[in-house]
Amino acid sequence: MFEQLDALLLARIQFAFTVSFHFIFPAFSIGLASYLAVLEGLWLKTGKSIYLDLFKYWLKIFAIAFAMGVVSGIVMSYQFGTNWSKFSDIAGPVIGPLMAYEVLTAFFLEAGFLGVMLFGMNKVGKKLHFAATLMVAIGTFISAFWILSVNSWMQTPVGYEIGANGQYLPGESWWDIVFNPSFPYRLVHTVIAAYLTTAFVVGGVGAWHLLKDRTNLHARKMFSMAMWMAAIVAPIQIFAGDMHGLNTLEHQPQKVMAMEGHYESHPNGAPLILFGIPNSEEKRVDYAIEIPKASSLILKHDLNAPLAGLDTIPDDEEPPVGIVFWSFRIMVGIGFAMLGIGAWSLFARFRKKLYDWPLLHKAALVMAPSGFIAVLAGWITTEVGRQPYVIYNLLRTADAASPLDAPAVAASLLAFVIVYFVVFGAGVWYILHLMHKPPHAGEYGVKRGDTGPIRTAGITPGPSQNPGDPDTLPRDHEEATDGR
Amino acid sequence: MDVNVDLTTIWAFIIAFAVFAYVVMDGFDLGIGILFPTFDVGPERDRAMNSIAPVWDGNETWLVLGGGGLFAAFPLAYAVILPATYPLIIAMLLGLVFRGVAFEYRWRDPGHRRYWDAAFTGGSLVAAMAQGMTLGALLQGIEVVDRSYAGSWFDWFTPYTLLTGLGTVAGYALLGATWLVWKLEGDSQHHARSLAKKAAWSTLVLMGGVSLYNVFLNAEYAERWLTAPEIYFAAPVPILTAVIAIALLRALSVDRHSKPFWLSIALFFFGMAGLGVTMWPYVVPPGLTIWDAAAPERSQIFMLVGVAITMPLIIAYTAWAYWVFRGKVADEGYH
């Protein structure tokens, strides 16, 4: 029994680890694919080379992020079977087809057109190339559509029947399953989150180069575009998040109780706990700073509306409050910080200081990775908040795992941790290296080969020189070790 | 129930098609990875890499369709096979991680290029070996009790699975080498052709070994291949395989460009057909037939609609992507 529990915990840690690592990349590539499509579209429309330069600048970064997303994503598609075989058997008839649709309508589309997008500009012409870019961008969205439908069905399962063999079987209507109650909210909230994440990365890179050279037109352009996104989309996201929260209150009340830290029921209006330390032993929030009745106002739009607390939920159906309470606050805090940056940028624009306000640029730089943190915190909130269930109110996480021995799961977890930190650590390093280079006129695309042409007119490299791709890391290390 | 039987058969063929598409398409990518150390550092390696850089991602997607499709159409098989071959699947996934990122990283970091080239080869080799051994583990039988895998976690490790693993490595190397015969020219092509000859012989020997082993692996397989009337249906497979093998060796001994690659694919096709004859109608021998493991009719129909609409489109734009990058790979790569 104890061994089973260990294997279960290890399998949960493994899934949390691999899915968290994985989602970082699509959170970026969903937004970046759309940004690239916008840049290429603007280039085709206006003919201004600055857009093509920016397109090529970000395309190199996209190529690396996308590769990391692909290889970490394939791990996910097999993880259901390797570590959660009971779940796969029981839920396969309902969620399997949705995931098959994701492969058929999204993965092939992205992968099929990616080669042309990365390497085909000179082979297919501008318009077809733009079409390929659009297909990749659309593919990333369709992928989000299906996988979020799957996740939402696991949060708010509807439209199923229970078979004689214990499987969940699809009911009359696939529409009900795909468009389950939490899906539209989760889709909107997640896709906007991906756009915001990308906007802050682009804005942060623009800000970094403005801090070094505020006359860099390319840096100005990407900073301005990113700040428009922040100013317009951050408020929309806060509104969408609020709607998502209300939907969660309706369908998964104990998740909201954990988010709010409401151990007790409040018959006459519940307080909004801003901060505090959830104490699960005593079932109360220590050192709470709260606004009386504000939670009822937000969740029920009525100061005195009663709100039930975790005291109405059996102990073995409560999610872990501490994690959910904190991750929710991190997400919301970052959301409001993004709103602040967006508002500040509007003010700076109004004062005509958008490119000449180092403090704003520094703030944008600090905020560059904030989207990733917010996105992960949001997922932790929703995934931990539905525990102890993997399919809400139907299948407990503990009943979903594969019949594996703890050493097998521990060994594979260790392998994933080591490989992911090495491989994705290197990938992030290469991306940072590319971002470190200032964007400039005549930007290179994705180059393949050391023997490529050199653009510097009139200078032919001698045989001892190896000019290579100007965006690659220097060769110093290799030459040093070759000398052994 | 009659309708369901037919749908289940259709789905078995769809999954088989996805697996076949994966094996030949990512097979040549992985094969190039396996052969990579034999190429000269510099333009030869760059060209080999460039010949697959625009298509590898699409090729690998067939693996997701194979796995995702199995999950959707035969959830019980998916839920049994993956825990039974757990270390193999994890090894394959990690191998594919290294292989996949090497495509980007080797260009970004010349200082560490040889390490990423080694990761490319190591990842390809591990993935190929693990895939072949998984196939072997499936063919030798998986113990199932009460809808769950009931064996221990090293049941997959036997001389037979080592043989199927090596056979797959050799077969992928053959696909990779013949692809390069098609895409390269000059000395590099010459080099690829000599590799292809070695890989062809290795593949044929190992295929023969696996086939013989199959017959002795269990009585039911032997009956299928060696007794009448089954033998009349089964016999064309080895006969045609032999014909293809001779044609392949001949094509490699003369100056042909694309023909060896297509003949290698044909060889794989008959190899898979042979596996089909061996396994049918089991999806997890010896206990689970495709009907035991099949998803309900509603799931099958829903997905069949999707396949009917998207598959022609997928094949069309995949073919277009290959067409865009047709011809010999030039020195400078794509930019």
UniProtKB/TrEMBL annotation, chain A:
Subcellular localization: Cell inner membrane; Cell membrane
TM annotation in the entry: 15-36, 57-78, 98-121, 128-148, 187-211, 223-240, 323-347, 359-380, 409-432
GO molecular function: electron transfer activity; heme binding; metal ion binding; oxidoreductase activity, acting on diphenols and related substances as donors, oxygen as acceptor
Protein name from the UniProt record: Cytochrome ubiquinol oxidase subunit I
Species assigned in the record: Croceicoccus marinus
Annotated InterPro entries: Cyt-d_ubiquinol_oxidase_su_1
Ranges of compositional bias, category Basic and acidic residues: 472-484
Gene Ontology cellular-component annotations: cytochrome complex; plasma membrane
Residue ranges of coiled coil: none
One Pfam short name: Cyt_bd_oxida_I
Keywords: Cell membrane, Electron transport, Heme, Iron, Membrane, Metal-binding, Transmembrane, Transmembrane helix, Transport
Family: Belongs to the cytochrome ubiquinol oxidase subunit 1 family.
GO BP terms in the entry: aerobic electron transport chain
Annotated region (Disordered), positions in chain: 445-484
Membrane topology, from the record: Multi-pass membrane protein
